[in-house]
Design brief:
Length: 333
Amino acid sequence: MGRRLEGKVAIVTGASSGVGWQSALRLAEAGVKVCVTARRQEALEMLVTTIRGRGGEAIAVACDVTDMAQVQQVVAECVRAFGRIDLLVNDAGVQSYGYFEDLPFEQIVRIFDVNAFGPMRMARAVLPHLRAQGSGHIINVASMLSKGAAPLLSAYTASKHAMYGWAETLRLELYTTGIDVSSVLVPSVATGMFDHAPTLLGLAPQPVPPTYDPDVAARAVVKAARTGKSTLVPVLLQGRLLLWAQALARPVADAIMGRFGARMQMGNEPVSRREGNLFQPVPQGIGAHGTGRVKPTPPWKRGLLSVALAGLVGGAAAAVGAGGYGVARWALR
Ligand SMILES: NC(=O)c1ccc[n+]([C@@H]2O[C@H](COP(=O)([O-])OP(=O)(O)OC[C@H]3O[C@@H](n4cnc5c(N)ncnc54)[C@H](OP(=O)(O)O)[C@@H]3O)[C@@H](O)[C@H]2O)c1
């Protein structure tokens, strides 16, 4: 189905945990040779061992995506090992929980440096190779927060909007070159991110519900690689339905997130973690699911929520439709 991936070569950033880890596994399973990178060397080595144990090909090169020299090194090592680069998966990302007025400014800058400028550095280093080949694909692990918004995550949300805007522009600039750019708008997924993200709130952070397994995002990354589609929204409930709700029932969506959005993202366990993994990596939370503290929402609950949200969107659409009909009748009178 779609483009053949066997024998292609990918660099996957953010591969020491969560979506990046799982995406590297899924790509390797599809026959892609992967160069995995992040700051935590030992975690990368574990991933490489897992991939090789399943018959895949992988190398690990540690790198901080805020450092251009380290980024260039990853690309050089990948080309040295595998001879080319076909796919760049920009997954590395960080977030920090707190009200905008309280967030230390250096945290805001750092979040942009990793989430928005990191992918740009990676792309700058990879693009000369893709241009020389006349083919290639940059896949960005973006977020539903690349379009919407959530309280407590102002810097993260802004950086993810920036990432998406940059990707869309780059896609147009590369339109005739044989190089594709895709963005995956990932919903809340149960990774270690919520165990190592800083918080100024003193309570363990948790994702906006419903939460999915990170494999949902990893499979969307592989689908992007196979199809070259510009924007992928992998799920219905915290995906296409949510985008429709934001478009058709904006006041209701705003009222829910404005009143309850902050509380939704705070668990009950006290936690003191002002810097988390923002500036330095932390030992915990490796692998696809991290420590496993955050669990995916059970499918039956997601089903019920889908029905409720579909009802809201349908009601809003009916109201808009009825309003439009009324206006049209009035205009024609
Ligand atoms: N979890 C969600 O609900 C969710 C929702 C939407 C979108 N996403 C996006 O999915 C991506 C992965 O997130 P995740 O949930 O899988 O979280 P995660 O487990 O914390 O993974 C983040 C990855 O980024 C790496 N990283 C952080 N800072 C880095 C830096 N300066 N240089 C290089 N690598 C760095 C981390 O590894 P090291 O610490 O080893 O460097 C880790 O491998 C992010 O872009 C995130 O925005 C997540």
